[in-house]
Design a protein that fits this description.
By secondary structure, this protein is an alpha+beta fold. About 45% of the residues lie in helices and about 20% in strands.
């Protein structure tokens, strides 16, 4: 016995199904765990970053608040008491020396206000590189501090203001910011502007403060001014943040970055995802405002670094799961292979039976489980199959003989109907017959009675198969025989009806339409014996159903019947279409008939086509309507066009 090879054995499929279920469950848990942990990390990170931002803001705010408070205290002192130049210089010196966050301080007066001899008076103490220095700008008219923003803006707004960060190239060559507070004198109930107290703050300490903040490996912190200028950052491993956030957004055409800048410069608090052009990758950013100055602090967290540990753990779990999958698969395959061994043995034997060796010996399986039951069932099946094959061989031989005889009968039947159509200028004629079985009971015929009279007929015998085919053959024979005696269709039907009724013990009948056309004059003599109404095309009316004035019963039902004929004058261009009810009663899969209406529609659409195309298009329309359903009745069509 040949060994049976299984492309995908039952053991393999069983193992695969089991492992697939395990893998799907494992992956579902892994994915769920990944996203849950991701949400937890995000929430914890938001809390940590919020705390970090709040701590940095408190320290930065403390320094700026102290400078602002000192400036406001000096302004209040100048408003409430008169101070000498020596006291004023001593006050400025103490402020700069004793406050690390203050780089320099000045009190700038209106012209001749402090000293009637001095137009400019703005003594300035500062400490470049930690060394206290003093500048007297009394004689530097080109300085003209009255036009500088730190003096002019608080004077105009009547309140203290913070300047935008600027690079003091003429001073210490460092980035700094200035807080200016105006002071006044009240004389006779009127407040008079006297000057401005200004404190300069060196912003280099901000970067020292931010440098202590570590955000993973490449994350960084930056401070943005109220106008979007980058003030300070702790980024050291990548190119330094410079310029303005809006300029960067415009150059990159980054609408999201521009909107981020708008929110940060509007004192908004937020957390969102954005693309960092410093790190050149996707990041998260948490931002909060510095209320004293209108600035905003931003903390940038690289997205890939934030989830690095989570992804690492997830991939490790996946690797462990994959290894477990392979080991489990091997174990299940071994166990399934052992359990299915009897089935494979049984399958090999049944394969031999399937190849035709019906006497192949089935294995003896004593198991009481499903395998044993299956083995015994196959033994019973084998015995029954041997008996069945013997009977089938006899039946098949008989069937083949019948089919051969039917094939010969079909060839004989097709030979009984004409297939060569007349090639005359007066008429274009075409016909077809499509039996529902090997042979059928529909019929068409045409022949010339003489040189100018064309006889044509179509008929539909009741029933199908061999009886109908035999009745059809008799009908055709009688038609030709009777037509040799007379050309009157009614008389021909009278004679045929008597002959078909005699000895008609099966009570079969045939509906038929018989016509004789004079191809020179166009005169058509016809008789309809219970057949479907033909369709007539005329130039004036187009296609329509032509109902004869006189109706007659089918042939072969009753004897002594008198059939009545009619005449019709055809004009050049008229078309006459005959058919059997296999066309109109063709059933679709949904049991819907093709119908006379659809037949008329098809003919109307093809009225200008050749007669062969008309018949083919009708058959195509019926096939599309049936759409795969079995042909339920024979189909016959005959059409001619009278050309005159």
């Amino acid at each position: 016995m040949d060994k049976v090879r299984f492309r995908h054995s039952f053991a393999f499929k069983l193992s695969l199904y089991i492992i697939t279920c395990i893998v799907v469950t494992f992956l579902s848990v892994l994915v769920y765990n990944y996203y849950v942990c991701k949400d937890i990390i995000m929430n914890e990170m938001k809390k940590d970053v919020g705390t970090l931002a709040a701590s940095a803001l408190r320290e930065v705010s403390g320094a700026f608040h102290a400078a602002q408070q000192i400036t406001e205290d000096i302004s209040s002192t100048l408003e409430n008491r008169k101070i000498t130049e020596k006291e004023l210089l001593g006050l400025l010196e103490d402020v700069v020396r004793n406050n690390y966050e203050i780089y320099g301080c000045t009190i700038a007066f209106e012209p001749y206000f402090f000293d009637k001899k001095k137009y400019y008076f703005d003594p300035y103490f500062y400490k470049p590189n930690g060394v206290l220095k003093y500048d007297d700008n009394n004689n530097e008219k080109e300085y003209n501090y009255f036009k500088w923003d730190w003096y002019a803006i608080p004077k105009k707004m009547n309140k203290g203001v913070w300047s935008e960060p600027y690079f003091d190239k003429g001073g210490a060559n460092i980035l700094m910011v200035t807080y200016s507070e105006p002071f006044y004198k009240t004389t006779s109930g009127e407040r008079e502007f006297c000057g401005v107290v200004a404190c300069d703050i060196d912003l280099t300490w901000l970067e020292k403060l931010l440098s202590d903040i570590k955000i993973f490996k490449t994350g960084y912190v930056f401070i943005l001014s109220s106008k979007g200028t980058y003030i300070a950052n702790n980024n050291r491993d990548h190119r330094k943040l410079e310029g303005n956030i809006f300029s960067l957004a415009n150059s990159r055409r980054d609408i999201k970055l521009e909107r981020l800048g708008e929110r940060m410069t509007s004192n908004k608090i937020g957390f969102e995802e954005y693309y960092s052009y410093v790190l050149e990758k996707k990041c998260f950013i948490s931002y909060a405002p510095l209320k004293e100055t209108g600035w905003s602090i931003g903390i940038v967290i690289p997205k890939d670094e934030l989830f690095y540990d989570l992804r690492t753990v997830t991939w490790k779990l996946f690797a462990i799961g994959l290894a477990g999958y392979i080991l489990t698969l091997l174990l299940v395959i071994v166990l399934a292979h052992k359990l299915t061994m009897p089935l494979r043995t049984l399958a090999g034997t049944t394969h031999e039976i399937g190849k035709g060796n019906f006497n192949a010996k089935l294995p003896s399986i004593d198991a009481t489980d499903e395998t044993g039951v299956l083995s015994r069932s196959f033994q019973i099946m084998q015995e029954s199959l041997i008996k069945y094959i013997a009977n089938l061989q006899k039946t098949t031989a008989a069937k083949e003989k019948i089919e051969k005889e039917l094939s010969i009968a079909r060839e004989i039947q097709q030979s009984l109907i004409p297939h060569k159509f007349p090639q005359l200028k007066q008429i274009d004629l075409y016909a077809t017959l499509i039996p529902a079985k090997e042979i059928g009971g529909d019929i068409y015929d045409f022949f010339f009675v003489d040189e100018k009279h064309l006889c044509f007929a179509i008929g539909d015998v009741s029933g199908k198969g061999v009886p109908a085919a035999l009745f059809m053959a008799v009908t055709k024979t009688l038609l030709r025989a009777k037509m040799s005696i007379t050309k009157d269709p009614a008389l021909v039907f009278n004679a045929m009806n008597e002959d078909l009724h005699n000895d008609n013990e099966s009570c079969m009948f045939v509906t038929s339409f018989l016509g004789v056309l004079n191809i020179e004059t166009g005169l058509l003599e016809y008789c309809n014996a219970g057949h479907n109404p033909p369709l007539l095309y005329t130039a004036r009316k187009g296609f329509y159903y032509f109902y004869p004035k006189n109706t007659n019963p089918p042939l072969g039902i009753m004897s002594d019947m008198t059939y009545t004929g009619n005449k019709l004058e055809l004009l050049p261009g008229d078309i006459f279409f005959l058919y059997t009810d296999g066309i109109t009663e063709a059933m679709s899969i949904d049991n819907i008939q093709f119908s006379e209406e659809k037949l008329l529609d098809v003919l109307v659409k093809n009225m200008h086509e050749p007669v062969l195309s008309i018949v083919n298009n009708v058959k195509t329309a019926v096939d599309q309507h049936v759409s795969g359903a079995v042909q339920s009745d024979d189909i016959a069509m005959l059409i001619f066009k009278y050309n005159g």
